[in-house]
Amino acid sequence: MKPVFDDLYSDRASGMRASEIRELLKLTQRPDIISFAGGLPNPLAFPLGIIKELTQKVLDRYGEKALQYGTTEGLTSLREAFAENYNAHDIPCTPDEITIVGGSQQGLDLLSKIFLNPGDEVVVGDPTYLGGLAAFRAFQARFVAVPLDNDGMRVDLLEERLEKMRREGRKPKMVYVIPTFQNPTGTTLPTDRRKRLIDLVHEYDTVLVEDNPYGRLRYEGEPLKPIKYYDDPDDPRVIYLGTLSKTLVPGFRIATVVAPPEITRKLVIAKQSTDLCSTTFTQYIAAEYISGGYLDAHMRKIKTLYGGKRNIMLKAMDEFMPDGVEWTRPEGGMFLWTTLPEGCNTVEMFPKAVENKVAYVVGKAFYAYEGGERSMRINFSYPTDEQIMVGIERLAKVIEEEIKDKKAG
Ligand SMILES: Cc1ncc(COP(=O)(O)O)c(C=O)c1O
Questions:
Q1: Which CATH code fits 11-47+297-408?
Q2: pTM of the model
């Protein structure tokens, strides 16, 4: 039957297609499969008791206000709590520069809404966060995809691209980076690259979107200052996205966009037509949580939980993976990026993995145009310790077969 609504859809919506990757991920929902495909926090890390207590407190103390519409920019006490917490963690900002959004995903959507015309170019890491690509694609962006190495985005190559674009009279609307424990690779940009990025966005007159959901999930090594720290206060170019999804709970849908005042004004207008305001109730609870000092204390618990899981996964990888397979050893975050030998293909291998009751995200999903055929992202925050050991052993067997097949073929 001919689809009835085709001629009604906008060009934007006509270009939206359910991806092949989403179809693959559906298979991973089967209960008998050990899935390393998700990017979910572990429910053991949810501070249910304190949330329960604070929920009661919010209802008792703020009752009707907490259940009413709120302002579009977000609850003042929450923006103040974030500003204090951010300043203590080298993210200089005032409450007025903060907009509360419904997850950093909404931040990416709103930034696209205010910056992107169809065909505009966005610089992204190659690979980068799938949801970032999806947000930019929904506004019909094109990508300038800059390769990564073990230290994140190749800033030297970025400079070459920007120079070439300038010669051709082109200018990217944004440079999108996940500087610390990047999704999907787990890589972290060193300080010199962070500073260079600031220079480049000034030199080529654009903005830098720093998406930092994993920065505080560090299990070893010294913390690095966010890119935002190095921004020029007289000519600010960094838009900083922070979220409570990985440090508290994703179900609150609370994140922040920290931006120069001029951009914040536009963002708030754009948000107004999207949802009027983010969920008031969870904003009140989050404000109590952060200003009560619970967040910083909770980070210690999360770090022990996830750091332990990362170690178990790295140990299992060392023990089971066949020769020729490489993986990152991130000091934090939630993911390892694994690359198989030449000739292997993680999309073709996927059904065999599912048959053997283990799943991952194919590397290809994270590339703007093409790449990642030999790679996969595997998550260690969600599965149980036992699932990690058993699942990696299963995955290693599937990979061993794939390598043998390719050699034979
Ligand atoms: C790099 C990155 N940005 C944004 C998000 C979305 O987070 P939120 O729950 O705050 O919308 C994620 C979630 O996995 C992510 O990995």
A1: 3.90.1150.10
A2: 0.96
